[in-house]
Amino acid sequence: MHNLKNRERSQVQDAAHLRNRNTKFIQNTSTGGSETAEISSNEHKYGIAAHNTKMEDSRKKDSDSSKKVQNGESNTKLESDSLYGSHWLTRVLIVRYMGFIYVVAYLVSLHQNKELLGKTGLLPANTYLDNVRNHVGSSSAWSLITTAPTLLWFVDYENNLNFWLDVIAWTGLSIALFMVVTGAGNWPLLLFQWILYHSLVNVGQRWFSFGWESQVLETGFLTTFLCPMLSLSSLPKSTPPSRIIIFAYRWLIFRIMLGAGLIKIRGDKCWLDLTCMNYHYETQPVPNPMSYLMHQSPEFFHKFEVLCNHFVELIAPFFLLIPRRTCMIGGAIQILFQVVLIISGNLSFLNWLTILPSLACFDDASLSWMFSQRVKSKAIKHNLEIGKTTKTPLTGVIRRIFNISFGVLIAYLSIPVVMNLLSSQQAMNTSFDPLRLVNTYGAFGSITKKRTEVIFFGTNSTDPESPAAVWEEYQFKCKPGDTMRRPCIISPYHYRLDWLMWFAAFQSYNHNPWLVHLAAKFLANDKEVESLIAFNPFHDRPAPRFVKADHYRYIFAKIGTPEASRGHWWKRKKMDSYLPVVSLSSLQPMMDQMGWSPRKGHRSKRKT
Q: Where does the record place the region Disordered (predicted)?
């Protein structure tokens, strides 16, 4: 309206200017007679008429524009109202995101499983399955499956373990890519996907002992039944997402976050005196460059971080169980918190995975901006059709019965989980059922105040005790080693060996027999284990005669110090010996006892 008034004012001024010009023209041409006056009068008349016509056209255009804006706002409001409270688009987003998590998980498996779990891996899965069989004392499939649920029981894992590990990973990766591309899935497909990953987790031993593996299984199981029974359409007609499953996602993120908050205030007093963040960035399993910078923050900022953490994990989770608007605020808080954690450290795909159940806090109206008009129109159409339908198809009845039964099952399995949350002896990252359908979670219940690392060395010297012996250092993919190497950025990817090396530094090698096996593989110049590390000093050289591991204390080099100016990210100091000097022959008795053997065909020959 303001623009319209300005345009009218301008047009009136133009008309006045035209009248003045005509008047001056008549006065200055007195010799022109009546003919000139008549011409001037006509010019004046038609000029005013033309400007009046322009004014009318302008008013019509402004009116049309105003109507279009009003219609656009009306359509947007109608669209929002039509999608209010429904979860068609939410389901598409969740299925795609779950597919992304599976993609990362299976890529990690493809690149590392053979070296970690294969026939000649650090902890061979076939040896583990044989031990389970001996422990159960039965060859019945049911007894074996209930003890260690995995498809490997049904194949020749003794002779073709590596092949079947790859088959499982490639099949799972293919299904995951389908989920990402289409945003669709059904019960049989996603249940099979869940079984595939279960098959890896249950033979993964220490390599798959992290809390996020159970979280993948629980989240993947929920995603299975968020989808239709048989249709592979991303927006299947007459099959809206179950509100029970949507609430189960919210219940999951509630348990994850509240469990993490409670384990902190019960586990380490630094969470109560607000000092935990003084240590966290430096001592977390696999820091990244941002961890280095965040560690340099002033103490008051670290205290503020702890307070924010307590709010997000102890108060904000209750927002997730409250209706729409507050629930969306709670979901947004959790997503933002996970993004901050992703930026500040390499915690595998844990934080990426934790974002997923938070998406269930948003309905279609709040997520519609992420989708094309075609997809939104289809979701609106389905909503309208369901509103008009008076009869429920048979598949809908079956789904409803199943969803109610599923809700009862989740409620029943949640009883020990809730009791654990309320207990002063709270356990984190624990499963109370063999299928890991409802689990307890938690992270960083206690904070490590000092960072220690296990550093491996090898030498070709004949006398390892001689001061002249030259010890050369092995470098891992991501864990700290060389003090001048920049901390890596790998999230959401994950190096399982690097992560367990962090845990091994808190214990002795006697608690980690796989670490002794790693030393034996270094002594054999094993090519498979070489793919798990960043640098083998004996690559394309004779294998080392001796290997040892020492314990080092690591701290970040402060910005502005001489070490930092010389390019050092870390400062380190040797503490003590971790693994004494060993040779392949000295480890042979243990290797025979464990059923391990180095890859003899891959060992570089030493010149004599």
A: 1-78
